[in-house]
Amino acid sequence: MSTRLLRGGVAAAAAALLALAGCGGGGGNGSGSAPAPQLNLTGEKSGKLTIVTKFADPQYAPYFVEITKAYQAANPKVTIDLQQVGDQPYKDKIRVLSAANQLPDIYFSWAGDFANKFVRAGLAADLSSVIGPDTAWGKTFAPASLKAFSDSGKYYGMPIDLDGKYLVYNKTAFAKAGIDNPPATFEDLLTDCGKLKAAGYTPIAFGNQYGWPAIHFITQLNAYDVPGDQLAKDYNPKTGAFTDQRYVTALQQFKSLADTCSNSGANGLAHEAAQANLVSGKAAMQYMESLEFKVMTVAGGAPKETADNWSFMRLPPSSSAAGDTKALTGAPDGFMVNAKSKQAALAVDFLKFFSNQENASKMVKELGWLSPVSGSVTNDNAFPQLVDTLKDMNEASQFAIWLDTVTQATVADAYLSGVEGMLSGDKTPEQVMKGVQDAAAKAKKQVG
Q1: Which pLDDT belongs to residue 89?
Q2: Could you tell me if 55 and 180 lie in one domain?
């Protein structure tokens, strides 16, 4: 399976929007709020829509094709140009389209500062009047999913899915290692890794070829170790400094985890290759997105022995954690509407169709993704672990959005390269944070 979320290059793509954000390249005011276009249809449904997604993977692309065909069948005077590319090609494509002021009517976005750059550049339509939490359409979504695409009290995106990060584990491996219950603390996890090694397993399968898998660990550990008000200050490019010692603590914890629990050579191993070791029973755990959970089922290609004997848990916090121990790393993916689209109202109508109860439930069943649409996940269309994941997400205090999309691009790049260096033994946690601090200082100058 090829994961959908190769975020290692997201920061580089987002960096290309910096100049646009500074000059309002999308025709907006460049200060964070584009003029709201007409979002409600007043006549018949007709015209052409252009949509660009990053769901070209053969496992996912047919679903989006099916939805667009169904909409066109119901609305014969509408034609849709659906363009689906892979993760890295999407980053390249959206950069070019943004620079040329030729964004499609509907385009994909990650949550966090990646989305906010479109907002600051005046490239994203303010959808508050149609998808705000008090609107009829907005009330059909989980509130946290809408909040992920909000900025300064306004709402700019429609969440596509719900995605959280969990340690997926092989229950047979735990039993053979004498582990009766999942570890409750980070310290317990390190101890259990020793038991799993003694039982002949790689405790945590880890491939960091593209950088983002390590950053997901850091995202969660930062949320656990650093108080929320400090995180909010540092993740804001206008105020970030990252001088709190607890950021170093999070890196030290991750280094302990990598040294104690994971396989060697992680920087040269793809996430998918590491995942294969979990699916085959050679590894006991992997830090995995809920969007990937299908790979652990027979329908997703796993052997029955694996499919019948797995569960998940959150990465446990340290017993000394000073931050939010109920936060969960994750975020929805989303669609945004071009602020200059002449078909903005039709685009909104399509997104309402895309996210109706029937289509949301179909997405859960066909793709194995959690939908942010209330009532779309049931025992009839989802495997048990997916149903339980939604319950767990609902108990989270908040989403800790992926570090490489919630932070400004310069900071994200410093974290990515720094943590890779730490894994290879070339940098200490303190040196990594010095690089992040320098990047934060540059970010302040870039955003003014």
Answers
A1: 87
A2: no
80 CB contacts (<8 Å, ≥6 apart)? Answer: 48, 49, 50, 51, 68, 71, 72, 350
For residue 149, give both structure tokens: 């695409």
- Determine the pLDDT at residue 154: 96
Alpha helices (H) along 262-356: 271-279, 304-307, 344-354
- In 113-209, which ranges are E strands? 150-151, 154-155, 157-159, 165-170, 202-205
**Same domain, residue pair 110 and 203:** no
Tokens 């429609």, residue located: 158
Rounded to two decimals, the pTM is 0.83
Q: What is the number of domains present in the chain?
A: 2
DSSP string for residues in 354-380? HTSHHHHHHHHHHH-PBPSBTT---TT
Domain assignment present for residue 182? The answer is yes
3-state secondary structure of 9: helix
Residue 401 lies in a domain: no
Q: Quick one: which H or E segment has residue 108?
A: strand 106-110
Range of the domain at 342: 7-163+331-394
For residue 15, the model assigns a pLDDT of: 46
Examine the domain organization and report whether 65 and 158 are in the same domain: yes
- What tokens does 90 get? 């999407």
Residues 285-331: pLDDT tens digits?
Answer: 999 999 999 999 999 999 999 999 999 999 999 999 999 999 999 99
In a domain, 400, yes or no: no
| Residue 315 belongs to domain with CATH number | 3.40.190.10
Could you tell me if residue 153 is left (phi over 0), alpha (psi between -120 and 50 degrees) or otherwise beta?
A: left
Is 269 a member of any domain? yes
Q: Rounded to whole angstroms, how far apart are CA atoms 244 and 253?
A: 15
